[in-house]
Amino acid sequence: MNILVCIKQVPGTNKVEVDPVTGVLNRNGVDSKMNPYDLYAIEAALRLRKKYGGRVSVISMGPPQAKSVIYEAFSMGVDEGALISDRRFGGADVLATSYTIAQGIRKFGQFDLILCGKQTTDGDTAQVGPEISEWLDIPSVCNVRRIVEAGADSIVVEMEMFCDTEISQVQFPCLLTVDKDIFQPRLPSYVKKVDTRDRPVRMFSLDDFDDRDEKKYGLNGSPTQVQRIFPPASDKKREMWNGSGEELAGRLFHKIEELKFI
Q: pTM for the complete prediction?
């Protein structure tokens, strides 16, 4: 089974500045990490490889420093990685992002199964995975909480719906987005980290794609227009009170009453 996992580098903090003109996150100088939901997808892929054989690859889209999450995937046991990186891809919304990743996957190879995390912690749209499947013209299943079994030409999964749980059999090639309840991700291995530190990562830019129309990528290919984006306002206040337990209890009661919590 040839498995591909889509991963992403996201900010490691919620204190990220926003470009007031484009509405794009300014990631320069911000600590980054692998999107937590992608760790569950990698774990699912590695367990499928152990049970059914095959290879596990990862692909990511981002600036050159996003290579770090690919090497983190290598230290978890992934076999191969590719990075889609080009300034012309910057500022992409979910439509342009999914189209770009789909083009990169076509150049990377043929895969039986594509796994994605349920969503990313910076975008939270949960739309890129299923949109990739549409561009690749393959079936997809979202919110997968358990993989029941895999055969030679299909996979059976259990997915979490709004009011119930459904079991579906999907033909290969297909795409699944997995939820965090599917498996507990393993920790990276230091030995694997050392062994794979010089492993090459394949690089793709717009010039490598079959479709090189710049109007379909980045800000040019993003129909979603951000009207206004801003960090949440902080209204935290702190008061220091001194007194006996009975006095403090009374003051606390009146404060809660004043704030109309009761």
A: 0.81
Residue 52 CA to residue 105 CA, distance in Å, equals 22
| Dist CA 176 CA 170 (whole Å) | 10
- Which of 61, 78, 70, 68 is CA-nearest to residue 3? 78
Phi (first) and psi of residue 16, to 5 degrees = -120, 135
Walk along the chain (262 residues) and give the pLDDT tens digit of each residue: 999 999 999 987 655 566 656 555 555 556 789 999 999 999 999 999 999 999 999 999 999 999 999 999 999 999 999 999 999 999 899 999 999 999 999 999 999 999 999 999 888 888 999 999 999 999 999 999 999 999 999 999 999 887 888 999 999 999 999 998 899 999 999 999 999 999 999 999 999 999 999 999 999 999 987 776 666 677 777 888 998 999 999 999 998 998 888 8
Burial 44-72 (b: 16+ CB within 10 A, else e): bbbebbeebebebbbbbbbbeebbebbbb
Q: How far apart are the first and last CA of the chain?
A: 59
